[in-house]
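job 3f2a | input accepted
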Amino acid sequence: MNKNTLFTVFVLFSKMILAQEIVDYMPQPDFMPDWTFDVEPQVYTAENLYEYINGEAELYNSYTFENMVTAVYVSERNDSHTLSVDIYDMGSPLDAFGVYSNFRNPDARYGDLGTQAIVSEYNTRFYQGRFYVNLNAGVNSKAMQEIMQRVAREISNTLPEQDPPAELDVLPRLHQIENSMKFIREGFMGQSAFENSLSASYRVHSGTLTGFVVIKENTEQADQALQAFKEFIQLRGEMLDELERGFSAIMPYQGEIMIGHKLQYLYGVTDYKEAESAKQLLSDIEQQIRSDYP
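job 3f2a | predicted structure (294 res):
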């Protein structure tokens, strides 16, 4: 058996182990009497996830998605009482947060489950470690909401415990609008050089604005990304002022932006109404960035 064949066998074996692991996190249908599987647990990977969620598969695959398991439970007493459960292994805590952050907003209702949970009458979704979990009830009733929370709690108790991603501390908390932070693997603001970006909304006296950080592997990559963005602005936008660590500019269709470079990070501010607040937030982000961050 040659080295390529051995490697292929190793990869397939590793995937089988991961698939079995995620199936083991799916609860058995004994959380209530007379409940059973309506759809037995099924595993999907990046290659066939579109077969399950065709419209949203691209979202998960834009992160480091590994695999997922899905199942549907039903009450034998009342077939309108159903509960679907999806458990996604996103490969890393930051990617689990990233997918989860696509669904949250400051006005949502949050619960004490996993690292954080969004709850509603029909739905509970949370992230914990490298896993993102989504539960959907078939009907809106107090009994179904209690069952949904019970199952969500059982899953959370089974999943490995892990602290929130350390990267979330790169953006300053002062004036940050709670639950506005997002993580995007692919190009923030449509910029291919801005992959792996954290962004959050901030409230200041002049209104709201957006602060962001682009995470690169090293200082050289960050400098190259800044230069690529500068070339884009010179071609498509308008340069305004040189800053101590970067520059300000006008982006086509998106307005003014201030951007800088420190260590392996690009950092910036956009969506602002006046420059002073933007400069202050830019300075706050620059001071927040330290060499001991991931």
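job 3f2a | Residues 3-158 form a domain with the Protein Transport Mog1p; Chain A fold (CATH 3.40.1000).
job 3f2a | closed
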